[in-house]
């Protein structure tokens, strides 16, 4: 993944239907999603019509104003635009863009991942856990993988939605617009500068609805988190490597990735099933934002 110059700007009014918008969210969890996804991006959206974008975002795929995303007080640090091309690298014609948008809109309402912890859990299962984990990150990975294990199997991630908008569009022949996915080399991005206090707040808010105080005088997890910082409760969990690896292994099995993960490998095993990339299409559920950015069917335009 080649670095992009921050000063290469692209006018919003020159975007076309079907272009991809890859972005980094402002939250601490977004920083971790981007890092575990081996890119600078934590989210991807599809340009719709009339100043709108369409995306897989909690709680379901929806269409919303692009201007809200680009506002100074909006939820993202930056947005990079990519021109969507045909599978062979040629231009998409107007009918192709209509077909992509039609299918994208047909997915409106499709349930999205329940929270960012699920997204991190799935990415950990694909990439593997980093070495030399601090206590707080061990705890976060365990929570993320357990969340993903409990998540419904039909929940969709943002990059899966964007991939399917093209691959499953109504074309002749079928899958004519499917974006080629080419596994690349690891980016070696440095671990992000995470504000641990803010991360704790974000995680606590996500966990609150899922933990209750038990009756008959037994204190539940929510009460523990209300009375003490999350990090203070982690040591008692004794999250060693074996514990984390077992949780990750269960999630990988649920995802159909039964072979051990290759540590520090960027070629996501399972992405193309049992064969090589040339032998078949990728598993849409395992496509990451960086895979869409690196596709030969994507051309970087600039930063919005």
Give me the secondary-structure topology.
Blueprint: E1 20-25, H1 28-36, E2 43-47, E3 52-55, E4 62-65, H2 66-70, E5 76-84, H3 94-106, H4 116-127, H5 135-150, H6 158-167, H7 196-207, H8 221-227, H9 241-254, H10 289-294, E6 298-303
Antiparallel strand pairs: 1-2, 1-5, 2-3, 3-4, 5-6
Describe the structure in your own words.
Helix 5 packs parallel to helix 9 (241-254). It is globular, with a radius of gyration of 20 Å. The protein is 34% helix and 11% strand. The protein has helices spanning 28-36, 66-70, 94-106, 116-127, 135-150, 158-167, 196-207, 221-227, 241-254, 289-294, and strands at 20-25, 43-47, 52-55, 62-65, 76-84, 298-303. A hairpin with a 6-residue loop joins strand 3 (52-55) and strand 4 (62-65). The protein has a single domain (14-303), classed as endopeptidase fold (from Nostoc punctiforme) (Alpha-Beta Complex), CATH 3.90.1720. The protein has 304 residues and is α+β, with helices and mostly antiparallel strands. Mean pLDDT is 80; it is low at 210-229, 259-270 and 272-279. The longest helix is centred in the middle third of the chain and has 16 residues, at 135-150. The chain has a six-stranded antiparallel beta sheet. The two termini are 19 Å apart.
